[in-house]
C-alpha cells in the first residue's frame, strides 16, 4: 500500500488561466527514494508545496495511508507526517545547529520520551555532525553542514515522509554524494524520501523518477 498517493492532481492560478500541474497520478511507498525532475516551469516546486500541504491542489485528491488528507488537520499533517528540507535551508542563523533542531521539536508539539537535547544531538550525529559542530552557530557552518542540520531538523519529530527541494543544488560533488548517502540511509530505515532535483546524479541514485512536463495549456 502506498503511503502517499496522488489522484488526478491539478493546480492552477490566475482564475484558471495558468495551469501548473495537470491531472497527475503518482504513488509513493515507504523505503524508497523518489526524484521529481523536469524543466523549469514544469511545476516541480509547486508539486512539493502540494505534497507538503503548504498549497492546496485546485483539483484531485491526495491520500495518506488511503485517507484523504483534507480530512486531516493541515498543521497536524505538516508537523507529524511530513518533514520538509528547503533549498535555501531556512535555518535560523543566529541559533546553533542544536538549537535549530530543538526548536523544530518544540514547534511540532510532539511528546518525547527522552530529553530533546539528547535526541537532537543523536540526530545531528546521524547526519554527520559531531557535538562541537552541533553547538556552533549556523553561520559558522559550511553549506554542506547546514544541509545536514536541515535534514536533522526535518527528522526531529520522526515523520514518515521526507520532502526535499534541490537539497544538493548548492553543494560540491563530494558533499552531494554524502547527502545522497544520508537519504539512502533514511530510505533503508523505512522513510519515504521525495526529492525535487535538476541533478542527473541524484536522479540516478533514486529508486523511481517522475518527470514533470509543462502542461500544454500553461501560459
Average pLDDT, all residues:
93
Computed CA radius of gyration, to the nearest angstrom: 17 Å
Task: Return the CATH class.
Answer: Alpha Beta
Give the end-to-end Cα distance, rounded to a whole number of Å. 37 Å
* Strand segment count: 9
With strands numbered from the N-terminus, the spatial order across the biggest sheet is: 6-7-8-3-9
- Helical percentage: 25-40%
- Uncertain runs are none
Shape: globular
Q: Report the CATH topology name.
A: Rossmann fold
Number of domains: 1
Query: Topology as H/E string?
Result: EEEHEEHEHHHHEHEHE
Strand count, sense and barrel status of the largest sheet are: 5 strands, parallel
CATH superfamily: P-loop containing nucleotide triphosphate hydrolases
- SS-derived structural category: alpha/beta
Second CATH tier, the architecture = 3-Layer(aba) Sandwich
Query: Roughly what fraction of the amino acids lie in strands?
Result: 15-25%
Number of helices: 8
Amino acid at each position: 500500500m502506498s503511503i502517499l498517493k496522488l489522484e488526478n492532481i491539478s493546480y492552477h492560478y490566475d482564475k484558471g488561466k495558468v495551469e501548473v500541474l495537470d491531472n497527475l497520478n503518482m504513488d509513493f511507498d515507504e523505503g524508497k527514494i523518489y526524484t521529481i525532475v523536469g524543466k523549469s516551469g514544469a511545476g516541480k516546486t509547486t508539486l512539493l508545496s502540494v505534497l507538503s500541504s503548504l498549497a492546496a491542489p485546485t483539483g484531485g485528491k491526495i491520500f495518506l495511508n488511503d485517507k484523504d488528507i483534507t480530512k486531516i488537520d493541515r498543521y497536524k499533517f505538516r508537523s507529524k507526517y511530513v518533514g520538509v528540507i528547503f533549498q535555501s535551508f531556512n535555518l535560523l542563523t543566529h541559533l546553533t545547529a542544536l538549537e535549530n533542531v530543538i526548536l523544530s521539536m518544540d514547534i511540532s508539539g510532539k511528546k518525547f520520551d527522552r530529553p530533546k537535547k539528547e535526541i537532537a544531538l543523536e540526530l545531528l550525529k546521524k547526519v554527520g555532525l559531531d557535538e562541537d559542530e552541533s553547538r556552533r552557530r549556523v553561520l559558522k557552518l559550511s553549506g554542506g553542514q547546514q544541509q545536514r542540520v536541515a535534514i536533522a531538523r526535518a527528522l526531529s519529530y520522526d515523520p514518515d515522509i521526507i520532502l526535499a527541494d534541490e537539497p544538493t543544488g548548492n553543494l560540491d560533488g563530494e558533499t552531494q554524494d554524502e547527502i545522497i548517502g544520508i537519504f539512502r540511509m533514511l530510505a533503508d530505515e523505512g522513510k519515504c524520501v521525495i526529492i525535487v532535483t535538476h541533478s542527473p546524479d541524484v536522479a540516478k541514485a533514486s529508486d523511481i523518477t517522475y518527470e514533470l512536463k509543462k502542461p500544454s495549456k500553461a501560459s
